[in-house]
Each structure stands twice: as structure tokens, then as C-alpha cells.
TrEMBL record:
It comes from Cupriavidus basilensis. This is Carbon monoxide dehydrogenase subunit G. Gene3D superfamilies: 3.30.530.20. It comes from the Bacteria. InterPro entries: CO_DH_gsu, START-like_dom_sf. Residues 147-193 are annotated as: Disordered. It holds the Pfam family COXG. Signal peptide: none annotated.
Amino acid sequence: MEMTQTRQLPVAQQTAWEALNDTGLLKQCIPGCESIEPDGDHAYLLALTAAVGPVKARFKGRMALQDIQAPDSYTIQFDGQGGAAGFGKGTAQVTLAPDGEHTVLTYTVNAQVGGKIAQIGSRLVDAAARKMADVFFDRFTAAVSGDGAQEEAQGAQEDVAKDGAAAGDGSPPDEQTGETKRKRSWTAWISKS
């Protein structure tokens, strides 16, 4: 899988660089992220839950920053294991470039997946990866710009979590409360008759 994308961040290059290296901020922005812990120089252990089509799993992995050219670019080397769901590994090249008072972030990801995830098909895997990247950058942009859009981005994350798995019993959400309505069991229906 290869994915390239460019995003404009509403902050100066140095601010964007510092945010990209803030593990607390990254934990808030990465969809499904449970933890990011240091593991040596410029390396981190991650745990996150992700859904790709019908496969939902908890992944544990390691991410290492290489070829660091502060505040312009670095390469992320990553690998993760999701048990029976499979694995993912690859690299991401991240570049920051000043654009007036803003910063243009460009990244290129080259990744390989295996196990059940690979059996799902490349279209679903690519779509799930793009959706996760979009949610991450929506959250990241909101966090670095300091506006209230982060709450909206978190709502989008909840939608991502629901996409890969059936929500409850498949009932539509209630329009007023947003909660999933529960279908009554057939035994409850018969007992009322």
C-alpha cells in the first residue's frame, strides 16, 4: 500500500514540528490510540485498536524516527502486530515546508499488511488507512490551531470506530439522543400480546 497526502496546517513550521514530536498530543490525535511510551532514542512503543472492515483488533507496535532534519523532515519506521488479525509494517516520510504563516505537511506512506487484514482486500485496507489519516489530521489541525474543532474531530473518530464493527444490534441511532435504540426481543413482544 502506498499513500501520499498534503495538508496545510494553520501554524508556523516550528510549532508544527514541536506538535509532531509531542507524544501526549499524538496520543490524543491517533484514532484508537491507547498508549505511546518512549523506547530508546527517538523510538516509541504504541498500543492502539483499529478496525479494517470486519476485522477489529488491538495492535502493539514500535515506531522509530530516523533521518531527522529538524524542523523540516523525518522518516518514521513502524511495525505492529495484531495477533490473529495480522500485522502491518512500513515507513512514512514526513516533510514540513513554510507557506507564509502556515505550514504545508506532506507525507508518503509505504506499508505492507499480512494476516486476516491482507485477506480483506487492498481497497478496504486503503480506505481504512485514508480514513484514519484524515481523522488524525483533522484532530491534529484542531489541536495545533487551538480552536474548538477538536471536539468535532473526536466525533469523527467515534464514527471511525463504528464503521468496522456493527453498532450494537444494528439498530439505527435515535435522532434526538444519538444512542443506538435496542430492538426488543421476540419473547418480550410475545409476552405483551
